[in-house]
Please model this.
Amino acid sequence: MPRYCIGLDIGTNSVKAVQLKETGKGFHLLSFGIEPLPAETIVDGAIMNQSAVVDAIKTLRNLLGWKGKEVATAVSGHSVIVKKLKIPQMTREELEQHIPWEAEQHIPFPKDEVEMDHQVLSTVDGQMEVILVAAKREVLSDYSLAIREAKLQPTVLDVTAFSIQNAFEINYAVEPGETVALINIGATMANINIVSQGTSAFTRDVAGGGKEFTEEIQKRLNVGQDEAEAWKLGGTGEGEVLPHEVEAVISEVAENMAGKLQRTLDFYLSTSVEAKLSRIYLSGGTARIPALQRALGHKSRAEVQILDPFKRIIVDEKRFDTAFLAQHAAQAAVAVGLALRHSGDRA
Model:
């Protein structure tokens, strides 16, 4: 059995961590935890407060008692570019020589400022379909440094959109020919991955997330951030009656956000004659807002579900608080996808 990494999702508001173990019966959950981050620690996927990230990782490491030190983490945002290319069929050696030329045509950063990777998806009728990924070296270095300073080993650096796909595929069966959209919505960004015929057909990061709801509630109702954050998710749960204006604000922001997401989905659908979106799976903290689920379902005319990354993971109910897992499952999707990577994978 391969040695699986600790999945570490370093998000805008918190660090999520998952560790899994594979046996003959399937994947077992070894640990799961969430540690909040101070405001402005992560901005557009870049680490602004290194020490806060290191402290959060150390807290999770000490709390969860991880086995091993190998870590898989993911990046997203404007510092990451994903391009799907169609090029004439060539040997592996020829492709290695050809990729830098393709990168110069498609990557809007100087080549000495990025790390690149590529993977051949298919070869049909003399044409290769290749996915090219480039990320700013500075951003990758900051993430790796934070992990090393927490006394762990960065082993795999992934793209957030692909991590969601890993979590989805281990938990859900997809009908042949079915096209689904996986949308991870965090505090400030949505990661979209459209999966068709079992492969990623389209990825895009869209600005906007849960912070928009919080800020609008703060502005309209003149309340603090903590109160607005609680109201966004339905209140404190202690018999609190929410002001009726809250629902109107949330519905308005949800409509605007759903419209932005739908325009991105429409762009893909307009470029793919055969594709028809059957389902949308939402993950991330913002996925828990019912108004957003309803608005996106109405605009897309597709079934919208919350992605459960623990759906087929074996959970020992004597060791884990299942209510806590259910409450935070949407936030755990990226970390679960990362925990499925192992130390022998290509970064």
